[in-house]
Amino acid sequence: MPAISATAPGKIILFGEHAVVYGRPAIAVPVAQVRARAIVSAQPSAFPPRVRIQAPNIGFEAHLDELPEDHPLAAAISGVAKTLNLRRLPACTVRITSTIPVAAGLGSGAAVSVAIIRAFSAFLGHPLSDEMISGLAFEVEKIHHGTPSGIDNTVITYAMPVYFVRDQPIKTFRVAKPFTIVIGDTGISSPTAVTVGDVRHAWLVYPEPYEQIFDRIGSTVQSAREIIENGDPKDLGKLMIANHQALQELEVSSPHLDRLVEAACNAGAWGAKLSGGGRGGNIIALVEKDKDLIVAEALTASGATRVIITEVRSIGKPT
Ligand code: PMV
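Above: the input record for the complex with PMV. Below: its predicted structure, written as tokens.
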């Protein structure tokens, strides 16, 4: 059996995080500059036959049968075996590497799962469909995040811009004019499960004001989609600022994130907001193409530990 490799991109949420957990729409796009990769290779001489998992970036090495069922790497591999009704797996090594920062809102967990599921199912001779890959990665997302919306596994599996509504079929859309986003990392890792859990507690105590904020975010997402499909991307800037303010009201921003948002806007970005779970991780700034380096420098000067410049454009055919 030849070694099989698969990769999956990172992602950013352009609009709608947190409210998406409560049924409102969100827009997410892949970030091809960072990727997770899984390589599966046969070890025909190994006896007894076991599946060895290596993740050298995090100094991790173990056999599948040594890991608890709810270990995310084990769950991705076992999910494929269960789907294919395989009780016994051939002796092999699954090697995972990733350039996606962890717990930073760039979808590293989902990308690792998608890469493993895609590579492992192909290695076994039964490459799974995107729909099945996304579904299995969603099960692993539940281990990471408790109550995920499913947006990360969806955008990362399909690797194209998506307009996502929980429990509804995936919708991709046309990006009329490509636009540039500068991503700035606070360098602070913040588990999404914590911010999602905190928003849930607050929503249970204050349902009405929280529902109103979610509604506001939902209409911002609708307007953003119309602009992306038909309008001038520059107009997304003010929607980003409105979305960031709503996330501040949900108490998922932080002084670090606010500082980077302000620095980007002061350096000439059309708008900026936190992206993902919040309290740490990344901000995204919408910039004119030839201002990308100026904004990137301003973010670094304000404490960003890493900056990525990416272009949002249509890939493939809208569904
Ligand atoms: O994985 P992150 O940090 O990009 O956040 C995902 C977005 C949330 O809306 C906060 C959670 C979810 O499951 O949709």
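Notes for the reader.
The mean pLDDT is 94.
The chain has two domains: 4-172, 179-312.
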